[in-house]
């Protein structure tokens, strides 16, 4: 009996077909109302949205039960605090390295130096960002039910941590409840596998809709900017993150990249770290050997807190907009961009349109025109798909480093390459 294609291969085929068919529709038949209405905004939109909703459906219960189980698996409130401090340190460090490298590369390449375009001076108004005080206060949910209903991930993480620690302190009652939590978490992991069976179709529809509407020709006028962003994303992922993984754990980056392939494909097609979270969590636990207690804390936190890819976009976009408007940047402004990127990654976590909010904050702080964002919005969707891959890659690398530092990384599982890891 012929074996079915591995899931990764199926997703890759769906992605390729979606890109091809979407581009053909954009070039030849997008003007036909039937195609635009019933195919692009009908079939592609509905099936793609259903797949995204199915992934998002898993996020809140999966994070809640896996995090509560993880705290109980650690068995020590002090260890939970130690893991949290390590995780935040590594997330801030990788973000700082990402934006610093992006500023350095962009300064050398100088995207936008000879940009031939009529600058639109219409004011660009980004969504408002909450103050850092508001973010800190809102970490603790005033109404946990509302936090769960609204999908406020940082509040859900906070509540689950408190609930898990309370279970540790209630003795036998907590131990009995931990058994039920573990069973629910096992069922949730099974549900993840069920949803993933529909991934090739969902990915195809998402890619087909994106390229039907935007096409490949949109990138041509912005090739310099896009090339610089993509170069920085690849450098950070292939060089910086892999080097950090190897230096701190002595584990093979090649095995890491091989086992993370399904996660990369999900992240690229959905352009959402939160939507990819169930797949990321399952992969780091089952394939990379990360302890449940560590993964259930670091992965959800990284999905809302760690934004290496977005930080890279900020660095390149700042230099690009400065070049377009012929405004020289000083060393002090470069340092300000780095500092603002770190603060913005905390202060705007979980806010819709987070990339544009963060960029607007940075541009305001260094005195560059915010309306320059209008120049890059056109291709932001395509680049956002690539940025999300780097974001989830950073989450997984930090998770492995933290788990190894806690002596809870199963290196036998990590190094096992037999079997189907697709």
Give an overview in words:
The structure is a single chain. The protein is mostly helical and 422 residues long. It has one domain: Proton glutamate symport protein (Orthogonal Bundle), CATH 1.10.3860.10. The chain is 76% helix and 0% strand. The protein is built from 18 helices and no strands. The radius of gyration is 22 Å and the shape is globular.
Question: What's this, in brief?
Answer:
The chain has 422 residues and is an all-alpha fold. The chain has helices at residues 7-29, 33-74, 77-109, 132-137, 144-150, 153-168, 172-196, 199-214, 223-249, 253-259, 261-270, 273-286, 292-305, 308-324, 331-347, 354-366, 377-405, 411-415.
Structural topology:
Blueprint: H1 7-29, H2 33-74, H3 77-109, H4 132-137, H5 144-150, H6 153-168, H7 172-196, H8 199-214, H9 223-249, H10 253-259, H11 261-270, H12 273-286, H13 292-305, H14 308-324, H15 331-347, H16 354-366, H17 377-405, H18 411-415
Helix pairs in contact: 1-8, 1-11, 2-6, 2-7, 2-8, 2-12, 2-13, 3-9, 3-13, 3-14, 3-15, 3-17, 9-14, 9-17, 11-12, 11-17, 12-13, 12-17, 13-17, 14-15, 14-16, 14-17, 15-16
Write down how many β-strands occur, each being a DSSP E stretch of 2 or more residues.
0
Low-confidence stretches: 118-124
CATH fold naming: Proton glutamate symport protein
Structural class: mainly alpha
CATH superfamily: Sodium:dicarboxylate symporter
Q: Report the CATH C-level class.
A: Mainly Alpha
**Architecture in CATH?**
Orthogonal Bundle
Described by strand count, sense and barrel closure, the largest sheet is: none
- The helix/strand series, from N terminus to C terminus, equals HHHHHHHHHHHHHHHHHH
Q: What's the oligomerization state?
A: single chain
> Which bin fits the share of residues in helices?
over 70%
